[in-house]
Input
Amino acid sequence: MPLISGNWKMNLSHAEAVQAVKKLGILLEGMKSELTKPEIRRLEAVEISIHPTFVALRSVQSVVEAESIPVMLGAQNCHWEDSGAFTGEVSPIMLSKLNVRYVIVGHSERRRIMGESDEMINTKLKAVFRCGMIPILCVGEDLDQRENNETESLLAYQVKAAVDGVSPDNLSKLVIAYEPVWAIGTGISATLDQAQQGCQAVHSLVGSSARVLYGGSVNADNASQLVRCDGIDGLLVGGASLNPDSFADIVKQSVIS
Ligand code: PGA
Output
């Protein structure tokens, strides 16, 4: 089942987040009147997740459940312990109690700005599984690594380090987002070939059951071609997911013939 995930990063207050998800619900419902029957079936087969900030999660959960909005709840990060003296952190158990389904782990912004190590990412990934949720592990090369032809070896290193000790059963449920760092928030998406090669390289490391998303400057113009590439099982969308109109348009472009 394809997955389209919206990473809201450090944007939208809880009130704005509630407005955004309500609007998304209306747009997803309204979209059906413009789609053919096969397209509606494809829309119903797409899983959509939204990843608000921690302070907005509970409000968004209430709206999603009360109004039966067809999106799954996602988080952007978590700690690896269930509770304890970790000032400022949020535990995976707390997230699972809010019916969070997906947790982004190892986003390049957390690796780079917050100094998250591969070991921390591995521990977090296992904690997310332990609490019954699914990690969306982010991997990807920076521009220097691409120019030095290190993309594939870097992906292999990041994926292997992150999934060390993960059971084959959990590995088959894992979602990995291939996100070239140079494509994130720059408006310069990877080409279809680059995106597909990266996603296929990740598939070759974890098998065909795990889903591999592409992320990095996804918008309504490039979404439809990206999701049709063999080996790309969905999209991780940052900036364009903040506006419900553009996020709904990305979903629509992914299902229309
Ligand atoms: P972007 O972000 O779509 O704004 O490039 C993607 C991401 O960071 O996941």
User: Anything to note?
Assistant: The domain at 3-255 is CATH 3.20.20.70 (TIM Barrel). Strands lie at 3-7, 47-51, 72-75, 100-105, 134-139, 175-178, 211-215, 234-237. The pocket of 2-phosphoglycolic acid is lined by residues 7, 179, 184-185, 215-218, 236-240 (CB under 6 Å). The first strand starts at residue 3 and ends at 7.
